[in-house]
Amino acid sequence: MRKFFVLFMIFIFACGLGFSVRDGGILRQALSEDPPTLDPAYASDVAPGQLGALIFDGLLRYDYYSTKNVPCLAESYEASDDASEYVFHLRKGVKFHNGEEFKASDVKYTFERVLRPETKSPMTWLFDMIEGAQDVIDGNEAHASGIEVIDDYTLKIKLSKPYAPFLKHLAMPSACIIPQSVGEEYGEMFSEHAVGTGPFKVKEWKHDISLEFEANLDYFDGRPHIDGVMYKIIPDDLVRIAEFEAGNLDIATIPDAEFKKWVNDPAWKPYIIHLPGLNTYYMGMSYNHPQLSNLRVRQAISMAIDRKKILETVRLGRGILAHQMLPPGIEGYDPDIEIPYDPAKAMQILQEEGAAGMEFELWTTTDSSVQRITEAIQAYLAMVGINVKLVRNDYSVFRSAVINGQPDAYWYSWWADFADPYNFLFIFRDYRGRLNFDDPEYNALIDELETETDYGKQMELVKKITEVFLKDLPVLPFYHLDSYTLYQPWVKDLIVHTIYNGDKYMTVWMDK
Amino acid sequence: MLKYTLKRLLQFIPVFIGVTLLTFLLLYIVPGDPIQNILGQRANPEQVERLREEYGLNDPLLEQYGNFLWRAVNFDFGKSFITKLPVSRMIVEKLPYTIALTVVSMIYAVVSGVIIGIIAAVFRGKWIDKLVMIISLLFVSMPVFWFGIILILVFGLQLKWFPMSGVGTSPWDLHYLILPALTLGTRSAAYLARMTRSYMLEILSQDYIRTARAKGISESLVLFKHALKNVAIPIMTIIALDFGSYLNGSVLTETIFSRPGIGRYAITAITKRDYSVILGTVLFAAVIFSVINLLTDILYGFLDPRIRFDKKTD
Fold this sequence. Notes:
- The structure holds two protein chains of two kinds.
- Chain A is built from 18 helices and 20 strands.
- The two termini of chain A are 36 Å apart.
- The model of chain A is unreliable at 9-18 (pLDDT under 50).
- In chain A, helix 17 (440-451) packs antiparallel against helix 18 (455-472).
- Chain A is an alpha+beta fold.
- In chain A, a hairpin with a 3-residue loop joins strand 8 (200-206) and strand 9.
- Chain B contains 13 helices and no strands.
- The longest helix of chain B is centred in the N-terminal third of the chain and has 36 residues, at 87-122.
- At the A-B interface, helix 7, helix 13 and strand 17 of A face helix 2, helix 3, helix 5, helix 7 and helix 12 of B.
């Protein structure tokens, strides 16, 4: 009987080897440039957010399979009805990579560190609605009165005004918790000594060469299946894809130049993850321009450009045609809205408005795909008698002009900071200066959305805001860019999350 | 000789001040600043203003420049606005990779360029000369970027003889250096071959060469002792110029082959307007060029006794 039992166990074990998840292996990836930082306080870019999700944890994180927020370092939380007061119950016994225990004081330290002027963080907007935060930003106070440590495992946060998306802020890269001792020891150099509670620890960072992570075997949610992640810094996208083809990388994104080759290859079809992106590419039209400030002219322009054709040809169909600011992955997206293509009507409106033969400057960067798109826009508008002058500059010059509201029109994009309709709609209230667009009705609706906590009412407001947006049309949405990720057949259960810091590599494993 | 060297070293000071002052002013005239890059898509005028204040970018220009000079004298170029890493540490970290690539490329370029040039000169007008001229013209006018990618696809991806990216275990890991050095050095080699050939032809038609031949000296002695020595000076000038510019980075080669280096460091900083890194790398470039120029001038004296530095004028 006992012998039979042993054989039975061996049988089970053997089955397991064939089918189930296996620990081990290093996941090899490439980054196009050396990450500017690993420090959450400076994580205003995609790469620091993506890498930070592996090293650090926030109070909340994204669910691995959706854009919902779930508890992480906070085990549970209670929010007041008006979304202005929150109590967080923290997970006990969680250790930082240096062995120290995670406590409520670390949370307070981390949030206040972002606010303090000596940190010079670009991310203060994440916490500036907390009571007393502005005093810390101004350098008048060292601590924000709204962040209260009740005991080692309980933290209370009070906002100076109700702000509904606050919990979403807590899942952002810059809200990742760092240990107070290490933060105080290294200050701005924390990035070189990054320590968190996350599933991976920094093993070695050779700037401009590679960045290596190893699995945190003591992670509170269990160890990751892979032993580590190896990022090689490879700036050229053709070289990256060549390294993937040679089997030296496990994951890669497909560059435009090789898009057709990979997507149409039946052998690779099962190993491509195609994901709609949380972004919107658009052409902004400034109210400072005498004719562009006319709604009918903006509408005529929207009808004169075949955006679908531009997306399908110039952009190789790597996206979804946009008719509103919200991309399909965001709640409140309305699939029935359409901004039509009707050049004859456009021509007629322009005649009626006396705008035929008008001119404006369209500002762009020197990026080659952007150049091709704006050249297409120029050609479509020439057909209805609008003379577009393209102004090309390097990214820094371009951005500076946009921030200062200089261009008549510009080609730009917005990428989700967090997965919420608010994050796509507030920009026309907060960045008014860029287009000199200032509609009190629009601003009031955004103010309302900011404090509304009821989901049903939120969606109603989003619908209204989109209506006002279409009525004003300050920008012409073009498309939502998709991402295409290639992976090797031995990579299993890989998640490519719609939000850049949504995955922690807790599911992926290597069958090799 | 010593006096000359000291005088030249003193001349460096105005050069460095001029170069950095010009860079400093240019950075403030050109639109865009590191703050907008730090803020990303969320940048708005108020945020930009707050951070400019915190980073000291609103201080008077002269004060900022003075601070920079004072720190530079102490070999401190400040910290990057974006990565917060000390600029001098990053230059020291990247320099070995740049030096390795420069030295290997130059050795390859000089050896192959000069030998091929001499061969072409000796066989002037023959098919081998014509072949050298055509191929070298091809290589001189070839874009570095394209040549690098071709080498990667052929010798890296298809034949798998060499790695396609990275640096291996040390900056001098030859296995990783060969393709980048071929990419960077081939252009110099082709140019050197063409120059060597034309200088050789010029010198081989001189009277003293005819005299040497008339004396019955063997042809190889004529070539290598009498002719080549006189070709050395113009060739030396070309080598020094290339050497200087390679040491200041070969952005394209470094980028294609994913090698760290001074050039990539500087270019990334320029696109992001990382002021302290730009100033640090520009000053570094000025030092490199000045020193190489000085060394070349001193070398001239050894190669050609007619060039002397301490000659009394009276």
